[in-house]
Design goal:
About 30% of the residues lie in helices and about 15% in strands. By secondary structure, it is α/β, with parallel strands linked by helices. An eight-stranded parallel β-sheet has the order 1-2-3-4-5-6-7-8. The radius of gyration is 17 Å and the shape is globular.
Length: about 270
């Protein structure tokens, strides 16, 4: 079986580009590149990883693709493009034929009105265009922003959608019941996969409650089943808290990883 860590970030740190790195995130404020990740993948016997955008520019997609072509274990890229742009098709032509580009993501969680974004006609046309081209779209929201996501996902069922970080539940917080109820709406949507990633950074207590995290993982298994869940470490963001490891076969299916890349190494 091909073992895939389905959620990594890479960057060359330049403060104005990463305004989301707030107080307490000093560990992230440096370059984090595939050469830093490679020993960890090898140590835990992962064959490949998926690089996910952390900036909202076309240059971010170019940067991640350059890394993917330089390092064989970076098997695919989730980039960024302005899905509301009138010239979206022309923008997408920039990466036409690049087999390492698996899809796109927008930082919906940082928008002032997530509901308005999900209802926006141009945004929905953009997501539909991605699906027609068999490209994944990844949904990034906090638990408090989940309400309109199921309806959005139901509209876009022509190709894979991925819910990042299990919908970012506030582990140890007070919205557990509402989060679970909204998550259960995805159960019948066979085209929606979910990443078990980033959970440790959502813990709201000082101590890392393993039992509480396991309870959330059990809920994910109940809702999505084993064939719609993917492990992702969310490295290096996971360094804000200590992190463990899990599994990887559904990522091969979701991101169309047709061939097994070389064993982790710098190429």
């Amino acid at each position: 079986m091909m073992r895939v860590d389905a959620h990594q970030h890479f960057w060359r740190y330049h403060a104005p580009d990463y305004a989301w790195m707030g107080a307490g995130m000093d560990v992230l404020r440096r370059d984090w590149l595939p050469t830093d990740l490679h020993p960890l993948l090898a140590r835990h016997e992962f064959d490949a990883c998926i690089a996910v955008q952390a900036r909202q520019t076309d240059a971010e997609t170019d940067f991640l693709l350059e890394l993917a072509h330089a390092h064989s274990f970076v098997a695919a890229v989730i980039g960024w493009v302005d899905l509301r742009a009138p010239d979206l098709q022309r923008r997408l032509e920039r990466w036409r034929g690049d087999t390492r580009l698996a899809g796109f993501r927008h930082l919906l969680q940082d928008e002032a009105d997530v509901s308005a974004w999900l209802a926006d006609a141009a945004f929905n046309r953009g997501v539909s265009r991605l699906q027609q081209s068999q490209q994944v779209y990844e949904v990034l929201v906090h638990a408090a922003q989940l309400a309109d996501v199921p309806a959005f996902c139901a509209r876009h069922d022509e190709y894979w959608l991925v819910l990042d970080h299990l919908g970012k539940p506030a582990i140890g917080g007070e919205d557990h019941a509402a989060w679970r109820a909204q998550l259960e709406a995805f159960a019948p949507m066979r085209h929606v996969l979910c990443k078990l990633s980033g959970l440790v950074t959502e813990v709201r207590t000082r101590t890392l409650g393993v039992a509480e995290i396991e309870r959330h993982l059990d809920i994910a298994l109940d809702v999505f089943g084993p064939d719609r869940l993917m492990f992702g470490s969310d490295w290096p963001v996971c360094l804000l808290r200590e992190q463990g490891h899990l599994f990887g076969d559904n990522a091969v299916r979701c991101y169309s990883l047709q061939r097994s890349p070389a064993q982790p190494g710098v190429h």
